[in-house]
Amino acid sequence: MTLKVGVVGIGNIGTIHANVYKEHAKTELVAVCDIVKEKADAAAAKYGCSAFYSVKEMLDSGIHLDACSMATKGEENGSEHYQPTMQLLAANIPVLGEKPISNRIDEGERMVALAKEKQLPFAVNLNHRFTPAALRAKEWVEEGRLGQLHMINMKMWINNPVETSPWFHLRALHPHSFDVIRYFCGDVSRVAAFMMKGEGRKIWSNAQVMLEFENGAIGNLVGSYDAGASYGLERCEVVGSKGRFVLDDACEQLTFYPRYSIATESYTYLGGMRNFNETFKSRISDWIEQLDAKVPYDQINGSGEEALKAQTIIEAAIRSFETSSIVEL
Fold first, then answer.
1. Domain locations in the chain?
2. φ, ψ for residue 145 (rounded to 5)?
3. Could you report the per-residue pLDDT of 218-227, keeping only the tens digit for each?
């Protein structure tokens, strides 16, 4: 059965969602919604679907939606996520949201609680781990190939000169980082953070965050909005008692280094995925396939609950820096 889907928020990211839905064999894009009438009308003409200018109008129209992407933005890229998500969930429509789940923990908690109450699939576009290389690395961890996990070192940085809230860098970029970190190493128990304002910056554009995990492993995040294009996007290194792996730029290069041998194992563009832009299609397609397979709401990959846990680590890092203390979760 073809899933009838909509997209709320037709900016750059919302357009990516719409393109994937339009091209996927198991979905029919039937609605686009944006408070900017011109955007909604242009997208509706492009995709051959209905245009709406508020979620309420869309829901009141009686249009059938099997699922909806929520790609609004707002302050710290997350302040406009709460209301449309709650409206869609209240109408019993599964939601794939954008990150961060919200820039406010209490809002994220209410979204997750409502989805759980209604037993609805609710996920967030944490696309950095939806790559063949990340999946292979996860298999190594679960198979015990790395042995007991010792540490994780994560680096994610881009050039973003935007000056908004003091915590824009943390709340907008690093839901991805902490999701990847949790994906490989599990839940975090303690957080300590240091931050600095880059040259000429007004926001805390650079961060070092130290982590302790419930399983005893340790780790750190290096993050920045002051990076150059030549720096690469990200690097994830996971080290265990039997070996380590290094994953570069989400999908481009994966290498396993055994502890007691010099024979490494390396993959370039595993699964044919060549660059970060392809991760959006991979992640949204996974959402579609899980909906089509009627996967239970509490087994959805990249769930709202997981996004909330990543955001909780961010808030702990902010509190650690503000209070010069180690924060327990």
1. 3-127+280-300, 129-274+311-328
2. -65, -30
3. 999 999 999 9
Q: Reduce the secondary structure of 125-179 to three states and give it as a string.
A: CCHHHCCHHHHHHHHHHHHCCCCCEEEEEEEEECECCCCCCCCHHHHHHHHHHHH
Q: Which two tokens stand for residue 265?
A: 């194992």
- The CATH fold of domain 129-274+311-328: Dihydrodipicolinate Reductase; domain 2 (3.30.360)
8 Å CB contact between 212 and 144: no
- The residue type of 37 is K
pLDDT per position as a tens digit, 164-221 = 899 999 999 999 999 999 999 999 999 999 999 999 999 999 999 999 999 999 999 9
Which helix (H) or strand (E) segment is 15 a member of? helix 12-23
Range 3-127+280-300 classified under CATH 3.40.50.150: no
Helix (H, G, I), strand (E, B) or coil at 73: coil
* Cβ atoms of residues 236 and 184 within 8 Å: yes
